[in-house]
Amino acid sequence: PAPQTKWRAAVKAAGGPVGRNMLEDLSLLTLDTLQKCIFSHDSHCQEQRSEYIAAILELSTLVVRRQQRLLHHTSWLYRLSADGRRFARACATVHSFTANVVQRRRRELNSLGHQAWLKGRQGRSMDFIDLLLLTKDEDGNTLSDEDISAEADTFMFEGHDTTASGLAWLLYNLAHHPHYQEQCRQEVRELLKGRDVEEIEWEDLSLLPFTTMCIKESLRLHPPITAVSRRCTEDIAMRDGRVIPKGTAHLGHDVPSVPIPPVYNPMRFSPENSQGRSPLAFIPFSAGPRNCIGQSFAMAEMKAVAALTLARFAIRPDPARPVRRRTELILRTEDGLWLQLEPLSGMP
């Protein structure tokens, strides 16, 4: 669920609409969600400090800072620096947590046997670690503990900041376009038809077409990942006669030859306007065999959080805190992404 308890408490304390840094709140939300879905672990990091979550956040900061310091590009120099030592400690914390979970599950699987282990999981959803433990290749070989840990760490590290950025910019765009925000809200209410918003089901997420259009348009206008690195292995002739030469690399959000209208218009992604469009015309999750491993997960999470949030809060721009974009590993802002939250009448 969205961090609504925290927001309601802030609104109550302020006695009215309250400004919140959406990037900060939603980053903790996505970290909390990932820990639950990957490890079946309740971190409660939205209410209290978690050593593991603190290490993930520190790694994100250190990676960006290393890119900005030329001397730190050399690995042995970086390892000797204060930042390098902090990076090593944070990595050890993250790797130790993941390895302990994987090893504990592996021992349980080996002790109980395959069938008994599966039977013991009936009645609850399997998490990411469970699925990886059961994965086999075409020759029947399972993944090693190290392979599973690497996949889990990748999903965790790459999945929190990107989804938080996507969610924050979605709410930013809906705050600046209240008619679209209200249309999303009515779509959620019509779907639920008297059910509490907390009762939204997995199947419901595919029945939010306009909300999905709003998410896609937000990803087009404010993509969390602003560049996709690909290199042409041969000359590519375009239909208009132009040639992309061999060796060309990089496709970015700000490429001058690709027109990107700065107007937020979800109708670009209506079924009528999407008909006949190349699947490579919109690639917020990259494309091809190396596309984003978590794109379905991210889209489902964004739909769920949007539904939970819009059903209970009106979102407005915060005029006291203008938003200035800043590109790091993801699309962030200089001083946070602040929006005003106002509880809707009759909100439970």
TrEMBL record:
SUPFAM superfamilies: Cytochrome P450. Its cofactor is heme. The keyword Nucleotide-binding does not apply. Belongs to the cytochrome P450 family. Keywords: Heme, Iron, Metal-binding, Monooxygenase, Oxidoreductase. InterPro entries: Cyt_P450, Cyt_P450_CS, Cyt_P450_E_grp-I, Cyt_P450_sf, Cytochrome_P450_Monoox. Signal peptide: none annotated. It comes from Pavo cristatus. It comes from the Eukaryota. This is Uncharacterized protein. Heme binds at residue 292. The keyword Heme applies. GO terms for molecular function: heme binding; iron ion binding; monooxygenase activity; oxidoreductase activity, acting on paired donors, with incorporation or reduction of molecular oxygen.
